[in-house]
Amino acid sequence: MDTKKRDRDFWARKLDRRQILKALGWAGSVVALSGPQGLAQAMAQRQAATEVVPERPTGGSGHATEAIPRRALGKTGVEVSVLCFGGAHWGGMSTEAEAMRVLHDAIEAGVTFMDNAWEYNGGRSEEWMGKGLQGRRQQVFLMTKVCSHGRDKKVALQQLEESLRRLRTDYLDLWQLHEVIYDDDPDRHFAPGGAAEALLDAKRQGKVRFIGFTGHKDPKIHLKMLAHDFPFDTCQLPLNVFDGTYRSFEHEVLPVLTQRGIAPLAMKTLSGNGAPIKHGIVSVEEALRYVLSLPVASLVSGIDSPQVLRQNLEVVRRFTPMTAAEMEGLRSRVASYAMDGRFELFKSSNRYDGRIGREQHGLS
Fold this sequence. Notes:
By secondary structure, this protein is an alpha/beta fold. It has a single domain, classed as NADP-dependent oxidoreductase domain (TIM Barrel). The longest helix is centred in the first third of the chain and has 15 residues.
C-alpha cells in the first residue's frame, strides 16, 4: 500500500494508537547533501516528487480555494502542509473568539500541521487549541513540545499528561523537546532517567506517534543532540535569509538532517519579530520563499491575525522554488546585515530564551 493511501486509510478506520504505530512504516529515501547549491537543487527535485494536490478545500463561503502543498515528514510515511500553524503568537491574541476564527480559517484553507508547546502563554495556547480542534482533531497533524528544560523523565511525562488534557486528545502526532539552547542541555536530556527516555516511553505507550527536538541558539548544540544517534523523527531549527552568514543552521545542521531522514521543521523565518521586513531589507515573500526552497518538511509561522494568515497562504499557494543562483544572490544581498546577528537575536542574545528554561539553568 503506498504512503498516501495508508495515511488516509489509517484516519478513516480510526485505528487505535498501537495499531497506528504498527501501520506506519518507514518510507522514502533522502539524498545526502552539503552546501546551499546542493540543497537548492535537491529542493527542486523533492518538490516535484513529494508535493501533493489534495482535494481543494473550501472556505466559509463554499468557494474552492487553491490547495496548500504538502511534503513528506522525513521518513515517517506522513505528509504535512508546508505551512505549520504556530501556537505561540496565536495564543497571545486578544480574544478567544478571534483566535478560534483564525484557527478554523487556517484548517479550512488546508493547513494541516498545528504547532504548540506546554509553556506557551502559560498553557493558554494548548487550552485554546484543544477547544478549537473539537470536531476537527482528525483533520490535523498535532504537535506540542515538552518544556522540562533539563529536568527528568517524571517531569516530562507529567507535562505530557497536562498537554493531552489541555489539547483534549489522547495522543499527539508529534512531541518535541522544547528549546534545547544551553550547552549542557543535550547532556541533561540524555542522562539516565532524562527527558529522552520520556520520548521513547511515550512513543511505546502510543501516546505520541513521532518525536523530535527544537532549539534556536547555536548549530553546535543541535549537532550535539544529533550525535547521540537517537531515533528522532523531526528537528525544528531556525532558517532564514540571514542564517547562511551567522552561526548557520542551514550549512551545519540541515545537511545532517537530510542525510539521516530526520524531517527539518523551519522556524524564525522572519527573524522572530519581522524586523527585517519592517526595515525593508527583505519582503515577506522573499523570506518565506527562500526557506521553502530548502529541503524542509514544513515552515512554522506565527499567525496571530487574519491578515497574517492570508499573507502566508498567498505565498505558499503560488510558491515556486528559488534557483541556487537566486538563493545565493539573496544571501549576498543581506550579508552585511547578518554578520553580527542583529536580525537573529534568538542566536545572539537571551531575548528569546524562555523564562522557565532560564530558571532551570540558574539564570534570572
